[in-house]
Amino acid sequence: MEKEMRSLMIGPEGKQLDELGTPDFAIGFYELNVSDFINQEIPAHWHGDLEIFMLDEGTVRLFIRNQEYMLQAGEAYFVNSNVLHGLCVVGENPGRYRSIVFDASIIAGQTGSVFDLEFVRPFTEQGGPLWLSSQTELDVAMEVRSAFEQAYAAYHTKAEGYEFDIRAALSKIFLKVRASTESHPLKVPSQQEMRLKQMLAWLVSHYQEGIGVEKIAEVAGISVRECQRYFSTYVKMSPIGYLTHLRLTAATELLVSTDLPITEIALACGYKSPSYFTKQFKERVGLSPRDYRQKRMG
């Protein structure tokens, strides 16, 4: 089956860089399907923004740091800023979801305000990494879902002053999540996670090069065995598997956004052999690079 690659737009520091709204209202509303990503998974990534996620259909496995959780349709999660997380589909059903990713300033307001200093900043710096609707009281989960729907409705209608409605809904979600996670462990990352982020960030900037596991491990100053264990624990794929995902992500972008020959795209994405690139692309995406380009370009 063909897979349309969804871009995570990971920048030079390894962080997700999806453009969020406008500079004065930095928020993004997404309606996607995990099944549409290569290998039906969104690999481990992180971003400085807060995120509220609602699964509308299917079952997905959520990876938060070195923990795993199963989400069913109708369940939600809230992930704190800069927390490593990823998703994959479970079973045959699609993982259709909606999410709101927003800069903390949407609810914190001006730097130094009471909202910032007393509530938002302490949470983003030291609060719990994750809130799950399935692990909280039913009435709280229902209130969060209701506020989520209110924010989405305001975004779609865009009536005058809709920004206030979105801010109010997100503030309500934030306060419910904050109260529910006060007893949770702090989000301070482990040394392993910090080293893994080093490696992920480096791979994002160097995937075009010839890379082996030894070089990836060297970036974090650890052994090859440790490197493989870190990726298995946090990313749920091998170091080379993650590298392949990055390369194919870049290739799908180039196939659609440029008219470069496929051989040049293969070389630009780190493949020395265009035939091996074509083989991997077809295995992971479901179409040859040429067929993928023709289908996407119409």
Q: Estimate percent helicity.
A: 40-55%
Strand order of the largest sheet: 1-8-3-6-9
Number of helices: 11
Overall shape: it is: globular
Average of per-residue pLDDT values: 90
CATH architecture of the largest domain: Sandwich
Task: Using the coordinates shown, work out and report the CATH topology of the largest domain.
Answer: Jelly Rolls
CATH class of the largest domain: Mainly Beta
Order of helices and strands: EEEEEEEEHHEHHHHHHHHH
Q: Give the CA-CA distance, first to last residue.
A: 18 Å
At the fourth level of CATH, the homologous superfamily of the largest domain is Regulatory protein AraC
What are the key terms here?
single chain; 298 residues; alpha+beta; Jelly Rolls; Arc Repressor Mutant, subunit A; 2 domains; 5-stranded antiparallel sheet; 4-stranded antiparallel sheet; 47% helix; 17% strand; globular; disordered N terminus; Helix-turn-helix domain-containing protein; DNA-binding transcription factor activity; RmlC-like_jellyroll; sequence-specific DNA binding
